[in-house]
Automatic annotation (TrEMBL):
Region (Disordered): 259-281
Enzyme class, UniProt record, top EC level: transferase
Biased composition (Polar residues): 264-281
Glycosyltransferase found in the keyword field: yes
GO molecular-function terms, A-Z: glycosyltransferase activity
Organism name: Alicyclobacillus sendaiensis PA2
Keywords: Glycosyltransferase, Transferase
Documented EC number(s): 2.4.-.-
Name of the protein in its database record: Glycosyltransferase
Gene3D superfamilies: Spore Coat Polysaccharide Biosynthesis Protein SpsA, Chain A (3.90.550.10)
């Protein structure tokens, strides 16, 4: 069985200078030794602090920077893609948020060990959507797809076997609803890690308008997942208006080699605007 050191981390961050150091330290406590950080239009020294923290805990840190922020969840997809491209021998990619506080490293290690005991499955966490109608909608979708009713495919942490990206492109991580639907259509199981403390949800300062935007995104994701899973009128919205899919496609178009192709035809050939990539051991 693979070891937690065989798991690479993927983190997307926008202006998290006060939190990114703790996140990297806790990932290191869990045994993660390689991390991709997608810096999403950061202006506050997030990258500098991430490098300082990574050096201190001996984590190999690869940074992909975008001067202009991308759409919601697009940085997650780019971080996952870069893990797949840079460290293809990894057993899985661990996706976490960049704004978590507290000493969650031991809990994260337990999650990783649990996930590695089920190497063919995507391991997520359970939770509730803070809107009753939407929560019920998602429960119906995941149950219809043969996943645990408590699963929230859009919540992190999440552990994705890298082999899953051979069957479903990591670009779809930019739309959790589509990624869930397409992986289930390919027969990739999803499971819930029950030991995660649901109070650790990130975004502690999110205001009312931001929460409303997130709920709109979750409705969009639910609609896309339902169409992809169950048919109905129309096709899954592959280019949702609130998501910067074109930046994801542009990043994919720059990747080279057999893993970059992955059976996926990209539809955008222009290079991603204002981006650069660096590595710090």
């Amino acid at each position: 069985m693979a070891d937690v050191r065989d798991v690479a981390g993927a983190v997307a961050a926008r202006d998290e200078v006060d939190r990114i150091g703790n996140v990297l330290r806790q990932m290191a406590r869990a045994g993660v030794r390689r991390v991709v950080l997608c810096a999403n239009g950061c202006t506050d020294g997030t990258v500098r602090e991430a490098r300082r923290a990574a050096d201190a805990v001996r984590v190999e840190l690869a940074v992909v920077e975008f001067q202009q922020p991308l759409g919601h969840d697009a940085p997650r997809a780019i971080a996952a893609m870069e893990v797949w491209r840079r460290w293809p021998e990894s057993a899985a990619v661990l996706m976490v948020d960049a704004d978590w506080r507290g000493s969650f490293g031991p809990m994260l290690e337990d999650l990783l060990r649990d996930a590695l005991e089920h190497p063919k499955a995507i391991t997520g966490v359970g939770g509730r959507v803070r809107a009753v109608d939407l929560d019920r909608h998602w429960q119906r979708i995941v149950c219809r797809a043969g996943a645990p009713a408590s699963l929230c495919p859009f919540l992190l942490p999440q552990v994705i076997p890298l082999a899953a990206f051979e069957r479903v492109s990591p670009r779809f991580v930019a739309s959790p609803g589509l990624f869930f639907a397409f992986t289930r259509r390919k027969g990739i199981p999803w499971r819930v890690y029950e030991g995660w403390d649901g109070r650790l949800l990130g975004n502690p300062a999110r205001d009312t308008s931001a929460k409303a935007r997130v709920l709109d995104l979750l409705r969009e994701d639910a609609r896309a997942a339902e169409i992809a899973l169950c048919g109905g009128s129309g096709h899954p919205p592959l280019w949702p208006g609130r998501r910067d899919w074109q930046a994801v496609e542009a990043w994919m178009s720059e990747m080279r080699g057999p893993r970059a192709a992955g059976g996926v035809t990209t539809s955008c050939t222009d290079p991603p605007p204002c981006s650069r990539q660096t590595t710090r051991a």
